[in-house]
């Protein structure tokens, strides 16, 4: 349950943790966009090296980083199998009924899996190195321009941060209520489906009751401190871009440039199995072997 | 007779993460039938974790827990949790937050219902439990538990546990958040339960003045370990150590220690205000000067 409570934040105090959260958010978006331009194995290698550098600098154990893959493992295998068996372009290697395996199919499957895995690992880096509160601040700051078209950005942000703030509290509360009802003999993990659903009632009702109570108390506490979301408020912790963010951006820029060069400047024939830099490397090998 | 036996119990929360926390370290403790056991200690000293082991809400990671003839450490066959939870009743902190049903009667019947008892048996148990906590059955049975006062809600919640007919009753901070009258009522209730329904009672409390009024044996938790396990009359010979742990000692003990320091020696064990008053009266009657 702690996993949910703290988000996935993994505190190490590394330079990556100390980056401006706005910068990290933008970097993650850029990463998400440009990973779709990675079309050759060489480009994936660039991305892999980049992520390795980030992981090492962030001082996060590789095991924790790979944990995020567990959640999409099923998706990876499922899409992988479908692509592998149903992709019908390219040279046929094997076929049975409607299933075919082609060389392009294998290539496509591996690349799709790589792309998904690297995408998840990369975006997960954001939540591993940034607290949910920092993220909320970053979103508020980045959405500021919307204020001019009368979007209540600050209200949205404060609602979001309150919601985030109360996730652990509600999780704790849920744990306590579940424990209390279990102590009264409630069984949550046995019985038929409708029995199990029914067994949630004694948990959900107290949970709702206490959420409303908390909301009331919180509203009173905000009022008592003259909280006013509409006036220009100042911040205790101001977000500031620094040289660190610039360096991080330059490193990301190198990755993006490498991916784009690989994608657009290399001239592999369209009928070749290999794309981008891969084509040259394979040719180089071929000429070596003779 | 030994009811509950705990040997070398160790529990660590969030193992192998940055949030790792040792809650219990090598705790060995025996609870005998007829014990009126008080547990004191700071927040986070491990008391709550400890008691949750006693009815299987937390599974032992390391060490042995044996409750009656149920061995919680054994893997096969699985320990009988339903029987365990029937025999060890647990009243959590702020138990009124676990109320969920639309009438008092239904809420108290939740436990016995989970035990799959007959309708008649459930009804007798509910009546019995309500009588035990001092709520008139006919007057309260159809009222919503959410409309009652704080003290009454708590009594309904305690009745909900009593309806399980436990042999051992565990209460976690039973008087927290109540007004003085509500506190007194709950205290008297616990005292009377000891003589009527559950022969063995374990109470966790912060209030040393309160807990010394009814417990006969006190266990002090400090830094995840059992620091003291003594009869009430002997524990406060260690006043200095308790104060060094940041724990309070009863007012009467404090006064007695001051008197001792000033050369006035009173006779007998002095723990409660009543002890102190009678000891002073005796001292005066024997010709002592104050």
Task: Label this structure with key terms.
heterodimer, A: 290 residues, mainly alpha, 2 domains, two-stranded antiparallel sheet, disordered N terminus, B: 290 residues, alpha/beta, Rossmann fold, six-stranded mixed sheet, four-stranded antiparallel sheet, 12 helices, globular
Descriptive notes:
- The complex is a heterodimer of chains A (290) and B (290).
- By secondary structure, chain A is mainly alpha-helical.
- Chain A folds into two domains: 10-131 and 243-289, no CATH class; 166-224, no CATH class.
- Helices cover 68% and strands 4% of the residues of chain A.
- In chain A, strands 2-3 form a two-stranded antiparallel ribbon.
- In chain A, β2 (92-96) and β3 (99-102) form a beta hairpin.
- In chain A, α2 packs parallel to α10 (243-264) and α3 runs antiparallel to α10 (243-264).
- Residues 1-6 of chain A have low confidence and may be disordered.
- Chain B has 290 residues and is α/β, with parallel strands linked by helices.
- Chain B folds into two domains: 2-97 and 165-245, P-loop containing nucleotide triphosphate hydrolases (Rossmann fold); 250-290, no CATH class.
- In chain B, α3 packs across α4 (119-132) and α4 crosses α6 (150-162).
- The longest helix of chain B is centred in the middle third of the chain and has 17 residues, at 180-196.
- The radius of gyration of chain B is 21 Å and the shape is globular.
- The interface between A and B is medium-sized, with 24 and 29 residues.
């Amino acid at each position: 349950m702690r996993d949910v409570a703290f988000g996935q934040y993994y505190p190490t105090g590394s330079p990556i943790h100390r980056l401006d959260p706005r910068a990290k958010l933008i970097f993650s978006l850029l990463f998400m966009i440009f990973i779709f331009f990675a079309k050759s194995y060489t480009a994936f290698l660039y991305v892999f090296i980049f992520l390795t550098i980030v992981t090492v600098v962030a001082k996060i154990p590789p095991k924790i980083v790979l944990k995020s893959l567990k959640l999409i493992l099923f998706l990876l295998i499922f899409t992988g199998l479908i692509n592998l068996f149903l992709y019908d372009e390219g040279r046929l290697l094997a076929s049975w009924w409607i299933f075919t395996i082609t060389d392009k199919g294998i290539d496509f499957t591996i690349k799709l899996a790589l792309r998904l895995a690297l995408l998840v690992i990369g975006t997960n880096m954001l939540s591993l190195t940034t607290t949910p509160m920092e993220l909320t601040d970053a979103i508020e700051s980045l959405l500021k321009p919307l204020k001019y078209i009368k979007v209540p950005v600050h209200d949205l942000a404060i609602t979001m941060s309150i919601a985030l703030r109360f996730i652990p509290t509600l999780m704790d509360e849920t744990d306590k209520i579940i424990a209390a009802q279990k102590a009264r003999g409630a069984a949550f993990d046995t019985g038929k489906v409708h029995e199990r659903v029914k067994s949630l009632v004694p948990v959900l009702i107290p949970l709702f009751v206490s959420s409303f109570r908390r909301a009331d108390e919180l509203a009173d506490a905000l009022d008592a401190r003259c909280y006013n979301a509409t006036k220009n408020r100042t911040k205790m912790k101001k977000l500031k871009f620094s040289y660190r963010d610039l360096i991080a951006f330059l490193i990301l820029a190198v990755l993006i440039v490498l991916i784009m060069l690989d994608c657009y400047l290399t001239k592999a024939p369209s009928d070749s199995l290999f794309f981008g830099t891969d084509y040259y490397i394979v040719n180089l090998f071929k000429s070596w072997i003779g | 007779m030994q009811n509950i036996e705990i040997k070398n119990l160790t529990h660590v929360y969030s193992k192998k993460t940055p949030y790792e926390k040792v809650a219990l370290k090598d705790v060995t403790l025996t609870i005998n039938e007829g014990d009126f056991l008080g547990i004191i200690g700071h927040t986070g000293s491990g008391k709550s974790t400890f008691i949750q082991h006693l009815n299987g809400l937390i599974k032992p990671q390391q060490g042995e827990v044996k409750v009656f003839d149920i061995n919680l450490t054994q893997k096969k066959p699985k320990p009988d949790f339903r029987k365990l939870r029937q025999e060890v009743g647990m009243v959590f902190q702020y138990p009124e937050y676990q109320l969920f049903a639309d009438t008092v009667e239904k809420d108290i019947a939740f436990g016995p219902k989970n035990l799959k008892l007959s309708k008649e048996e459930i009804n007798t148990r509910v009546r019995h439990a309500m009588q035990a906590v001092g709520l008139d059955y006919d007057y309260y049975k159809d009222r919503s538990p959410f409309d009652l006062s704080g003290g009454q809600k708590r009594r309904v919640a305690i009745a909900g546990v009593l309806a399980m007919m436990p042999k051992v009753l565990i209460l976690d901070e039973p008087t927290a958040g109540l007004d003085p009258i509500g506190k007194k009522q709950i205290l008297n209730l616990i005292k009377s339960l000891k003589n009527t329904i559950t022969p063995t009672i374990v109470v966790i409390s912060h209030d040393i003045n309160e807990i010394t009024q009814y417990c006969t044996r006190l266990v002090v938790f400090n830094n995840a370990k059992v620091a003291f396990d003594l009869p009430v009359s002997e524990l406060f010979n260690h006043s200095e150590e308790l104060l060094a742990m940041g724990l309070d000692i009863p007012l009467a003990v404090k006064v007695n220690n001051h008197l001792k320091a000033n050369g006035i020696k009173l006779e007998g064990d002095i723990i409660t205000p009543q002890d102190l008053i009678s000891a002073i009266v005796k001292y005066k009657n024997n010709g002592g000067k104050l």
